[in-house]
Write a structure and sequence with these properties.
Length: about 375
Amino acid sequence: MTQPFVQPEFISAQTDWDDLAKRLTGAKHLALDLESNGYFRYPERICLLQIAVEEGIYLVDTLTVRDLRALGSLLNDAHCLKIMHACDNDLRVLDRDYGFRVRSVYDTAVAARFTGLDRLGLATVLQTVLGIELPKSKALQRQDWTLRPLAKSSLEYAAGDVAYLFDLQAELNQRLQALGRSEWVREECERMEAIRRAPETRPEDLLWSISGSRSLTNRERAVLRELVMWRDRLCRQADRVPFRVVSDEVLLGLARDPKQDFQALKELNAVRALGALSSLRQALNQGRTAPPIPLPATQAGRRQRRSPAFLRRLKELKAWRVSKGKALGLDQAVIWPLPSLERMAENPSLETPNGEVRQWQHTEFSREVEHLLRVWEGES
């Protein structure tokens, strides 16, 4: 049964946000989530911020509240714990849209994973850990958060993403302490503070994100590059997400046959409605005369042939990781990173904590890994 929570307060005026920000100053912890419009608009941007503190839940309309510097200061306050769920993308988006850095993060999805859960969606974790059923409508999940006014059902949906995070964090913390894994989660969450916005792909490089682009000829790839740059410009002008204007599959088909008659092609109805068929023809013509685009050299193509000794060592390291994961009731991927296993199979020496190997992993498992490596000493 869904437990009741305090009805959220919708903040749409700058003055109301300024008043709330003053009350939030000095908070010891808060729950945070956000809603973006990436399923409909291009480029994506944050439309709503959900903030929960002990006194209530606040939904901040970022389309009308533009000055959020006070929130940036709060998020950067190491003395305030920010409880979020599966927040790696949210951290990137907060950096991208506002330049905010979030310190003292507690990700309840990370914590749940270290208690042994493998299904980490918020609704599933709440049901499993607290017995709370969180209604999740697909229509609400995929709504256009740019549209106003927001319906009551939308506001309640958004509030549900933060309403139970305090209780969830407390229960997960108890379970982690009983398992002796609190430090593991602390380090994982601390590392999340370094997450930054994903670098924006240059328009001329967008073709490599199209599945099937590598199967084209060099000439066809030149056409595809012009097409994806054309679509990017069109979608920015129309503020519409690319797949809702023209699909990747249609662009691939046009790249393979740029001379085809597409005037009546129903897959181009959105382009036709935007009055962009002539600019599409221009992009096709430019692609047909542009320099051919060869495939880039791939890492796989440069990879040296692995020796039988390497393959055997890697197999043994992977088997150890699987066994350890089963013994601890954890996904094997969290036990030790695969790239490190590959490096140690190539050069049998224990890796110290680095960008991939965590300190907690080294503390917990280095003796077992080192034992395997000693067996291989003297092998060529």
